[in-house]
Write a structure and sequence with these properties.
The protein is mainly β. The chain has two helices and 20 strands. A hairpin with an 8-residue loop joins β16 and β17. GO terms for molecular function: porin activity.
């Protein structure tokens, strides 16, 4: 898939944008328009593999009892400058992040698995601290911003994950354009990534299910368009060189029936095909999810269905958020070959009951019919006899409570408690996990 047309489109739209925008830009200075934000994140995570040892990553064994636990604290500082005056403005984005171990041990730090709270060395010990420091230069021309350096893309095909102690980042070039009302165009070409537990900003690419891949770059392009106040559409494509081409189409609908009542719906579709040297073998996967629900006052109930029509796991970059499927939840993605799944979700906003900032969510998903009979060698899963796994099933139940302080000195301080339970046949683990996340954002400038 070629991404040059998307980049060219962004440039053409930028050149056609009104000159008045540039006049407004001249009023903002490099220092005057700068912002400095510091996020304190306190992160507790435990995961109990009920049926044996925790699965390891990169062949390093985790605790034999299958129990992983870690408590850590992060300080995440981000500085975004304004732009120099003029039609073409220049600026800088920079960040410094520090992760500190508060409590964990060699027998329960999760090893080198998807637990991923603190870096773990070859001796099996978690590091006491680690850090990330990086930045990007940026140039603004009318409504187009180009960034070069360490970036945090947010698209359905390439997205920097932020579900662990420190966020994930990528290194390369990104372009964003907002010239037309309701339309945001994005494109980029990235040649390295940095996962949540890595201090190295130039790591090679790793996928969640296929593992490390020898790929020189990933490129993406597409856009989000708000058709109206109630309807939005997204269309994106990406290429992980010599691994895959991915294409995404998504829609979201909210249809008010009254001041208190609204119907909600959505649809997500991915197609993933092998590309170039086929570093993860041959595959051609279609996976989709659909949602239908109702919102009444403080209550939202939604039913979703998801299905993978391919013969292999639907894969994505490791620990990234680039899987916009309704049934990709706290632990399970429900994305195994031929797997079909249903999920029921309930949300409650307690502001309507006099407690603004307090919310509650619970969901239950069940998948069935996972079949590895025709999976390629990179995604194949077999039973103890060496036969491909078939007729695999799983379910997951999640509960989440979150409170955000609304006023006072602790305004925007948030506390989130997340609990997940999942049970499965041979292809997945039975586990229970708890995450407690406290975040306190500070705006310094």
């Amino acid at each position: 898939m070629r991404h040059t047309p998307t980049l060219s489109l962004a440039a053409l739209v930028a050149l056609a944008s009104p000159v008045t925008w540039a006049e407004d830009a001249q009023q903002e200075g490099f220092i005057e328009g700068s912002r400095l934000n510091v996020l304190n994140r306190n992160f507790y995570f435990n995961r109990d593999h009920r049926d044996g040892p925790a699965p390891s990553f990169n062949s390093n064994k985790a605790a034999d009892n299958g129990y992983s636990e870690a408590w850590a604290h992060a300080i995440i500082a981000r500085w975004e400058s304004g732009y120099t005056p003029g039609t073409v403005g220049v600026g800088v984005d920079a960040f410094a992040m520090l992760g500190l171990k508060l409590d964990t041990g060699g027998g329960r730090n999760g090893g080198r698995s998807s637990f991923d709270v603190m870096p773990v060395g070859r001796d099996g010990q978690a590091r006491d601290e680690y850090s990330k420091v990086g930045g990007a230069a940026k140039v603004r021309l009318f409504d187009t911003v180009v960034r070069v350096g360490d970036v945090f893309p947010a698209t359905p095909v390439v997205a920097a994950g932020d579900s662990r102690l420190l966020p994930e980042s990528f290194r390369g070039v990104t372009v964003e354009n907002t010239s037309l009302t309701g339309l945001t165009l994005q494109a980029g070409r990235l040649h390295a990534m940095s996962q949540p537990v890595s201090s190295n900003l130039r790591d090679n690419f790793v996928t969640f299910y296929g593992g490390a891949v020898d790929s020189p770059w990933v490129a993406y392009g597409g856009g989000d368009y708000a058709v109206s106040e109630h309807v939005s559409v997204s269309l994106f494509g990406s290429r992980l060189k010599d691994v895959w081409n991915q294409y995404y189409l998504g829609t979201s609908v909210t249809w008010p029936l009254s001041d208190e009542l609204a119907l909600i719906g959505g649809f997500n579709f991915y197609n993933a095909r092998d590309e170039g040297r086929q570093r993860l073998g041959q595959f051609d996967n279609d996976i989709w999810s659909a949602k239908l629900g109702v919102r009444y006052g403080a209550h939202t109930v939604a039913l979703t269905h998801q299905r993978n029509n391919g013969d292999d796991d639907f894969d994505y970059l490791r620990q990234s958020d680039s899987i916009f499927l309704d049934n990709s939840i706290q632990y399970s993605d429900f994305n195994s070959p031929k797997e079909r799944s249903w999920m029921l979700r309930y949300d409650l906003n307690m502001a309507a009951y006099g407690v603004p900032g307090l919310s509650f969510m619970t969901r239950y998903g069940r998948g069935s019919d996972a079949d590895y009979s025709h999976a390629n060698a990179f995604y194949m899963r077999r039973d103890s006899n060496g036969d491909p796994l078939t007729e695999q099933k799983r379910w997951e139940r999640d509960i989440e409570v979150k409170y955000v302080v609304q006023t006072g000195a602790a305004k925007d301080l948030s506390l989130r408690v997340r609990q997940a339970t999942t049970r499965a046949t041979a292809f997945e683990s039975d586990l229970d996990e708890v995450r407690v996340i406290v975040e306190y954002p500070l705006s310094i400038l």
